[in-house]
Amino acid sequence: MTGVVHPGRILRNNTCQVGDQIILTKPLGVGMVTVAYRLGEASTESYVQAVGHMQTLNKYAMEAARPFRLHACTDVTGFGFLGHLNEMVTPEYSIRVTADRVPFLPEARRLAEAFLVTAGGLKNRKFAGGKVEFRNIDTATEEIFFDPQTSGGLLMSVHPRDAEAVLAALDGAAIVGEVVARGAWDVIVE
Fold it and tell me: Is the dihedral of CA 104, 105, 111, 113 positive or negative?
C-alpha cells in the first residue's frame, strides 16, 4: 500500500497499555469453515455466514471505535487470532484471553473437534504455539484460535473506561481479553 498518513493518526499494533481491554470485532473460524465447505464437510449456512463476515469491511468498525481511546489495533488474517495477538505483545506486557468470550462461527467447533483444520492453522500453531500458555483449554478451541482468517476482524486494545462504549458501538464484537503486566508467556489463554 502506498499513501500519506498524518503521523498523529497512525495506530500501531504494539502500543497497548496494561489494563487495556482487548476487543475482537468478528467471529473466528472462517478458514476452517471455507476449507471444509469446499470438501463437502461444512453446511451451506455456515459457509454463507463466513462469506458474510469476509465481505464486511473493517473500515466500519474502525470508524465506530475511532472516537474512543484506542491504544493499538491490528487485523486478524493469515496468522490467526493467536498469531496476531502475539504481534501486539512487547517485553513490557502480556495479553490474557478469556477463551469463552471469544466469538466463533457456530459450526467451527464441530469442524475443529473432527480435526478438519487447515494447513495454515497447523503452521500458525508451529510459529506461535511456544509463545502461548493454554490453561485448561480443549484442543478444538486451540485449533479455532490458530485458524487463519480471510478478512478477519480487528483486535483493538482499548482504554478500560472506554471498552463498554466501544463494544456498544460495534455489532457482534466482544471483549476477549486484557493487557496485563509481563509474565512468562506472550499470551495466556484461560
Answer: positive
Residue 3 pLDDT? 81
Which CATH number does the domain 16-189 belong to among 3.30.2310.20, 3.40.50.720, 3.20.20.70, 3.90.650.10? 3.90.650.10
Write down the pTM of the prediction. Answer: 0.94
The residue with cell 497497548 is 16
Report the C-alpha dihedral over residues 53, 57, 62, 64, rounded to 10 degrees: -80
DSSP 147-184: ---SS--EEEEE-TTTHHHHHHHSTT-EEEEEEEE--S
Q: Are 149 and 80 in contact (CB under 8 A)?
A: yes
Which grid cell sits at 79? 496468522
